[in-house]
Design brief:
The chain is mainly alpha-helical. Helix content is about 80%, strand content about 0%. The chain has helices spanning about 1-20, 30-55, 60-75, 80-100, 105-129. The longest helix is centred in the first third of the chain and has 26 residues, at about 30-55. The relative contact order is 0.10.
């Protein structure tokens, strides 16, 4: 449910921003961005489903961070340079969570929570203000 709300909110805000600027939302850059993000996200999602089916749940949280970080790193070619750093931080937290499985959920919360909040505030003050 959180994923659906996050995607819905991002689409709504992107459409509104593109309309305000008089730009097209769906262009060749958007298509390339989506494709470059989709490959690691779909691959990671399928791998996680395999892990779930086999009862290997200890690595779910860290692997979501790793594959999401890979998707962000790929996406950075088509968006802000800072997205690359965000991707590397997510990958690092995922690897840390993989090394210390008992702290995987904490790394997940840091990566998808605190790091995104800090990144969002930074990006707002850098580009939107």
């Amino acid at each position: 449910m959180v994923l659906v709300l996050a995607i819905g909110t991002s689409i709504f805000l992107s459409v509104r921003k593109a309309h305000t600027r008089g730009e097209k939302l769906w262009n060749s850059t958007a298509k390339r961005l989506l494709l470059n993000m989709a490959v690691p996200l779909v691959t990671g999602g399928l791998l996680l489903l395999i892990f779930i089916a086999r009862g290997m749940t200890g690595f779910l949280a860290p692997f979501t961070l790793i594959f999401y970080g890979l998707a962000l790193y790929n996406a950075s070619k088509f968006t802000y340079e800072e997205v690359r750093s965000l991707g590397l931080i997510e990958i690092g937290l995922g690897l840390l969570g993989t090394c210390f499985v008992g702290y995987g959920l904490l790394c997940w919360a840091l990566g998808f929570g605190l790091v995104h909040i800090i990144y969002g505030i930074y990006m707002h003050y850098r580009y939107e203000r």
